[in-house]
Amino acid sequence: MRRIVITGMGAISACGMDANALWQAMRDARSGIAPLVSPDPSVSLRMKVAAQLKDFDPAPHFDESRINLLDRTAQMALLATREAVAQSGIEFGSRDLARRTATVIGTGVGGELARDEQSRRLYRDNSSRLHPLTIVRIMPNAPASHVSMELGATGPAFGVVSACASSNHAIIQGASLIRSGLADAAIVGGTEACFSLAGIRAWEAMRVVADDTCRPFCKQRRGLVLGEGAGAFVLEILEHARARGATILAELAGCGMSADAGDIVSPSGEGAAAAMRMALEDARLAPEQVGYINAHGTATPANDPVESRAIRAVFGKHADGIPVSSTKGVHGHALGASGALELVAAIGALREGVIPPTANFIDPDPECDLDYVPNVARERRVDAVLSNSFAFGGLNAVLALRKYPG
Predict the structure, then answer these.
(1) Which CATH number applies to 4-243: 3.40.50.1820, 3.50.50.60, 3.40.50.970, 3.40.47.10?
(2) Contact assessment for residue 347 and residue 339, using Cβ atoms and an 8 Å cutoff
(3) Annotated catalytic residue 333
(4) Less Cβ around it within 10 Å: N or C end of the chain?
(5) Alpha helices in 181-237 (DSSP H)
(6) Can 164 be counted among the known catalytic residues?
(7) Residue 14 exposed, middle or buried by CB count within 10 Å (0-12, 13-18, 19+)
(8) Active site includes 296?
(9) Distance of CA 255 to the CA centre of its chain
(10) pLDDT tens readout for residues 188-207
(11) With a threshold of 0.70, does the pTM exceed it?
(12) Spatial separation of the C-alpha atoms in residues 104 and 136, rounded to whole Å
């Protein structure tokens, strides 16, 4: 089987404009959650906090004519991709490499800000005409399309939409294309810009949003905190990366996917466990070889105990010795971008031997009985990592990473 390695990563989040800023914040438990900046200050909102990218101005990064084509979710995907490609050093001047490079970008809601803006124009302002580029702004495949066009990557390119598992599904699809021989490299990741007025109101209506902060696995958790951002990664077959002398960040050793086929919102421990088992089997990893699990850990009453039980079901007695943390207390729940932001944490743990903590932790919950690395990072050699993403709709996607060389 073709071995796949990660040679570049980029990220943009509430913690800053690059992957290192995100990793430093996750490692230091320095939260990007702050008072919500409302898209409409004239409207009173129940949502009070969020992990937003503040004061972001696309003008220095894109030509004015191009900005008209790009929803915020595509803008962030492009910036994360630029960082990942620059770190990787991969060049697409070769026509052969360009046609052998796939582009797969996930998003949960697509061009939500463009959709909201035009909906207001239609329903509030009674406009008979919408912006002529509305469709290409809101379509969920727009980030993948813009990334492929900017790089000149002419291989398979498409978007993945599976709610909070979108990033991990996109990464798995890129890896699958490489494994199948349809590509030798892939630009993969996820992006989300969800802070529209309609989006905020919809999340308020679900009554799963915290009013203080995000406290995964903690007794005092009160729900999730929405975030935004993007993460992008360069995947390559090992031989290609070696031949060009690339620095290898980690090996993407295995992937697991499953569907609960149950409730649209309530998670299933069996489905989550099945995806973790599949990732271990695919990576040829024994449970005791895993040194860290980056959990989905949304801080909702339902998710955290179910995920904890699923980890116990997969790892048995070894579950007591595995550090498990959720970094959503730092970057928020960025929906379709979450898995990509969290892959930065998994790679950081492998490369630096540091387990990023679960931020904002107060007291343990008897229903969540694992080692959640509360508040303070922990130095520990890590040779293999799992990174979990579980989505509304019962969609589960798990990545298994191995330290390189290994």
Answers:
(1) 3.40.47.10
(2) no
(3) yes
(4) N
(5) 197-206
(6) yes
(7) buried
(8) yes
(9) 15
(10) 999 999 999 999 999 999 99
(11) yes
(12) 17
